[in-house]
Amino acid sequence: MQLIQIKERCRNRQMRTQSVEDILCLCDLAKRYPLSKKDKPSLKSHLTASRPTSVVEGISSLAKYRGSLKGQNSSGIMSQNMASSIIPFLNAKAVADAISVLGENFEGLHIDFGKAEDDVFFVDPPFQHLAEYAEKYGNDYGKFVDDIELDKEQLVFVPPFEEDDKSNVAGEIWQRPVHLMTALRAKGKEFDTVIMLDCNEGIWPNKNAVTSEELEAERRVFYVGFTRARQKVLMLVSKSIRGKAVEPSRYLTEMGLLT
Q1: Are 159 and 189 in contact (CB under 8 A)?
Q2: Is the residue at 170 inside a domain?
Q3: Using CA atoms in the order 118, 124, 125, 130, what is the torsion angle rounded to 10 degrees?
Q4: Which of 25, 182, 185, 39 is nearest to 108 (CA)?
Q5: pLDDT block averages, 10 residues each, the chain of length 259
Q6: Which of 129, 155, 170, 251 is most buried (CB neighbours < 10 A)?
Q7: Exposure of 242 by Cβ count < 10 A (0-12 exposed, 13-18 middle, 19+ buried)?
Q8: CATH code, domain with 201
Q9: Which of these, 32, 135, 121, 52, lies nearest to 93 by C-alpha position?
């Protein structure tokens, strides 16, 4: 939500210091270019000296930066690549378009679950689903942020996923009775009961999976979720989603649960 809030602020004139901080935040997540402790102060000085009155104006200054970025920036190539990955996000009018750009250009937002190179749908967060959900908001970024924050308050807290997190807090959280997560986030975990939501065509498998390789990747994601259960799996099938009739997932037929 931090990046969506930055985009919302872009609509108004900002303090120069806020513009610079927002640009640095965008740079940390665009194209897996987290700024190093060495590079960040130098880039910040460059941006501050350009006195940007908006994030958009500051991105133009970023493209002209010739200092070090991860140790390389020959002829400003790194700076220009970073700027070109951020500009489509800033220019997106609709909320759904902005989220789609985040999924494509901001790889620093993705969590790596050890996916194979051909597992093209092994992406978390699921930006495609978020973009579809955001279509109803049009260009109302404020309403989108408010609704997401409200939803977050109502969801079960999901604990840290680092295997080496041995803190008492993490241990206590994992002992709670209910956890809400994607199939990928459940990878490597086990639960007494697993409830899989919306086991329907278009979701399992994702409607964007077209090739045989993509469909097989989707099947593996489903398998990850299904095999998290020690004792019981409940698969919920919806009759309609967003007012449209939907069919049960083909995986249920493949498993012999439907004929």
Answers
A1: no
A2: no
A3: 40
A4: 25
A5: 82 78 90 83 94 89 90 87 93 92 82 48 64 88 85 57 52 67 82 92 86 87 91 93 89 89
A6: 251
A7: exposed
A8: 3.30.160.800
A9: 135
